[in-house]
Specification:
By secondary structure, the protein is α/β, with parallel strands linked by helices. Helix content is 39%, strand content 18%. The chain contains 28 helices and 21 strands. It has a seven-stranded parallel beta sheet with strand order 11-12-10-13-14-9-15, with helices on both faces. Helix 8 crosses helix 26. The protein is globular. It starts with 20 loop residues before the first helix and ends with a helix.
Length: 739
């Protein structure tokens, strides 16, 4: 840590030593703000202009809002109630307006006296509270308020300038109280250490950090806000990219064993057996991977490919190349169902090449073993033995592979399926099993826009498979509005029966399993009809399967699959479905990743609005895997105009996963995409928007790479080191690591 002039850096001061203990406690507990620096980086969400009021017409329901408005009228009513039987109950109703709309405020009981004196017609104030609906009108009950007199010094001082900052607030701490706390610590901003190298800052015409902090909290004009945001965006993008560049730099220093396949070994034998030719995309990506495998530093590559673009084939060829070169390859899958499936499909693709050491195996053959937590003891012992002796060239498993007991003869390549379910501690634990760090290939079927790939997987080089293999059929998707048009839903079940009659199979996906204990707290409340549709529990597999079997799909063979079943039962259900012994599989999203049944052509997703865009896209990729066209029906009860319906329409209108991932990001904001550490109050991206700021991120990546190459330890840049330490406190370190 750099100590400035012998003092601990002023921005590190705990808030409790600067603000009142109660305020500091709320800031720590509800907003995750602990130090002066944290508070200075808690930027306003937006700004109100004094002459302009919030659009009352657009207030979101059930959210904590801050509005600036003028009192139109105020009336005191008396009424009788249990507490005040003689008609002595008092209720103050205040109507506020902003020109665009009106909003009712209500105060009760003893709480009416102060507002009754202060909220006179014509008064302007800031009001904060939670919006609710009463008698079909929007209202705020007992809002906190702060008068904007514009005369007393304090108000003029704290709302200096024409722009009033509105901070992300909580019910416990209103925006203006946060504003006052910021006012208290703002002078400290002068001491902020600048993380950007001076040449970069001047070259790009960015304002210094102290000035940016001052302008974002106390802007006089919109131009001030723009300057501040442009500067703070760079900080975020650059510091994050430096962290990733240092990781890449450190990884590039590690030694690895180069692995080049023998000219006429296992890989050649495998390619000769293939009944089809690889797509151009598969050949290009394979070349990138083989080039990496041939170097003396570990490969770190992310392989992105749409569902069904043939990622497994590319990964398998990389594994065979490593086995050819005398090493072993391990493939990690997020669930047992998936590990079993990969094992099945890989042994099928390899045929006798997977029968090393058995009669009938060919000379190049190797052994392909499966290792999962629920295997029997004898099978597990044999698998472990095959790994340690090197008899098994390829192992496929769940994180059971990472356990201490598992020893490899010579681990050369680790393939991780569906990265977002896999942390780096696990990647590292597996890496540690090699005599030298093994090469790493991460596969994901979630299309990730380029900037997110640069931000989240910034320590990996990226390869993209964007063509579908020949013979794949298009999938038609339609939204089924069950509430507006019930006959559409009836038609959906007829379509399923038609597919089955044509010799095909179908999936029905539901958000829940259905054997959960109901929450007694929720049962007691009465709800209005429109709340019912919104708040009713999501449809459950067990209930839906039961209703379908007795109703619209009577006579068809319907089975269920969900995550709480015993692994053997799950596998048995999947096998029956794959073998065509089941017509309809009613399942949760356990089928989202990697289930491959080419004969399944239809999918009905119930309560589709409860799933994310990329999840729907993943699910849909399970049909149309054979030569018959696929059909995906998105069933929802949400009204036509709702955001949820727009989201479903977007999914129905395109099969391009990258396009959808952009829509998804724009709707959810980056929070969810950048992992859990990101979505909380302390997201490390405060002003950077991953989609809009594509150029900033790309440029920051270049600058960061150059800075790290020139000075890996950042000795010349103490401010940047301090900023990195702050970014990489434990929580962020984990987020970067987990990817």
């Amino acid at each position: 840590m750099d100590r400035v002039h012998g003092l601990e850096e002023p921005l590190k001061q705990p808030l409790k030593s600067v603000l009142g203990p109660a305020t500091a406690k709320v800031m720590a507990e509800h907003l995750g703000l602990h130090t002066v620096g944290d508070l200075l980086h808690h930027y306003p969400r937006r700004y109100e202009e004094r002459g302009q009021l919030t659009q009352l017409a657009e207030l979101p329901m059930d959210e904590h809002v801050t509005v600036v408005a003028q009192v139109a009228d105020a009336r005191l009513h008396t009424f009788a109630s249990a507490k005040a039987p003689r008609g002595k109950g008092q209720r103050l109703e205040v109507t506020i307006t902003d020109g665009s709309g009106r909003l009712q405020l209500v105060f009760f009981g003893n709480g009416v006296h102060k507002p009754h004196k202060e909220l006179l017609p014509g008064t302007r104030a800031m009001f904060a509270g939670k919006v609710s609906v009463f008698n079909r009108r929007l209202q705020l009950a007992h809002p906190a308020y702060e008068l904007l007199r514009g005369d007393s010094d304090e108000t003029v001082e704290s709302w200096a300038g024409a722009l009033i900052p509105i901070y992300p607030a909580t019910a416990k701490l209103e925006s203006w109280k946060i504003g006052k706390a910021v006012q208290t610590v703002l002078p400290t901003a002068q001491e902020a250490l600048d993380p950007l190298p001076p040449s970069l800052r001047e070259g790009r015409g960015l304002v210094p950090l102290p000035e940016a902090l001052l302008k974002i909290h106390r802007p006089h004009t919109k131009a001030d806000v723009a300057d501040a945001r442009a500067r703070l965006k760079w900080d975020e993008a650059f510091v994050l990219q430096v962290a990733l560049a240092r990781r890449r730099h450190a990884d590039a220093q590690l030694p690895a064993v180069p692995r080049t396949p023998r000219p006429d070994g296992l890989l050649t034998a495998f390619d000769d057996r293939l009944p089809f030719t690889l797509t151009e995309g598969q050949q290009k990506v394979s070349k990138e991977i083989f080039d990496d495998l041939a170097t003396e530093h570990p490969m770190h590559r992310l392989l992105q490919g749409e569902v069904g673009s043939g990622k497994t084939m590319v990964a398998l060829r990389a594994m065979l190349a490593v086995v050819d070169a005398g090493g072993q390859a391990a493939m990690l899958a997020p669930t047992e169902v998936l590990a079993q499936q990969h094992h099945r499909s890989i042994t099928e693709m390899m045929g006798e090449l997977a029968e090393g050491g058995m009669l009938g195996g060919t000379e190049h053959a190797t052994k392909v073993v499966l290792l999962t937590g629920s295997m029997g003891a004898a099978a597990r012992r044999q698998a472990l033995l095959d790994l340690v002796t090197g008899e098994a060239g390829i192992v496929i498993g769940t994180h059971a592979l990472i356990e201490d007991k598992v020893q490899f003869h010579d681990l050369g390549l680790v393939v991780v399926d569906e990265q977002h379910r896999f942390g780096v501690e696990q990647r590292d634990a597996l890496r540690g099993k090699g005599k030298q760090p093994p090469h790493l290939l991460v596969m994901t079927a979630t299309p990730i826009p380029r900037t997110v790939a640069m931000t989240v997987f910034g320590d990996l080089e990226t390869s993209v498979l964007d063509q579908l293999p020949a013979g794949r059929s298009p999938i038609a998707s339609h939204v089924v509005p069950a509430a507006d048009k019930p006959h559409f839903l009836a038609r959906a079940w007829e379509r399923v029966r038609e597919e089955v009659a044509n010799g095909h199979q179908a999936y029905v996906v539901c958000p829940r399993i259905g054997d959960e204990e109901d929450d007694p707290k929720k049962a007691g409340r009465k709800q209005s009809a429109e709340d019912e549709a919104e708040k009713r529990p999501p449809l459950a597999v067990l209930d839906v399967a039961d209703q379908l079997g007795r109703g619209p799909l009577q006579g068809l063979r319907v089975e269920v699959l969900h995550g709480r079943m015993h692994p053997d039962d799950k596998d048995a259900v999947m096998r029956r479905f794959a073998a065509g012994e089941t017509d309809v599989l009613v399942a949760t999203t356990v089928i989202e990743v990697g289930v491959n049944v080419p004969n399944a052509t239809a999918m009905v997703i119930m309560d589709a609005d409860r799933f994310g865009v990329s999840q729907l896209h993943q699910l849909r990729g399970r049909v149309g895997r054979g030569s018959a066209p696929g059909l995906c029906l998105l069933v929802t009860e949400m009204p036509e105009a709702s955001a949820a319906r727009q989201r479903l329409n977007a999914v129905a209108s395109t099969l391009d996963g990258f396009e959808l991932s952009r829509i998804d990001l724009e709707q959810r904001r980056e929070g969810d995409v950048l992992g859990q550490a990101q979505s909380g109050a302390r997201t490390s991206l405060r002003v950077l928007a991953v989609i809009e700021d594509e150029e900033v991120i790309a440029e920051a990546r270049e600058e960061a790479t150059a800075v790290v190459a020139a000075d890996p330890e950042l000795r010349q840049l103490p401010g940047l080191r301090t900023a990195l330490d702050a970014l990489l406190d434990d929580e962020r370190e984990q987020y970067l690591e987990k990817g």
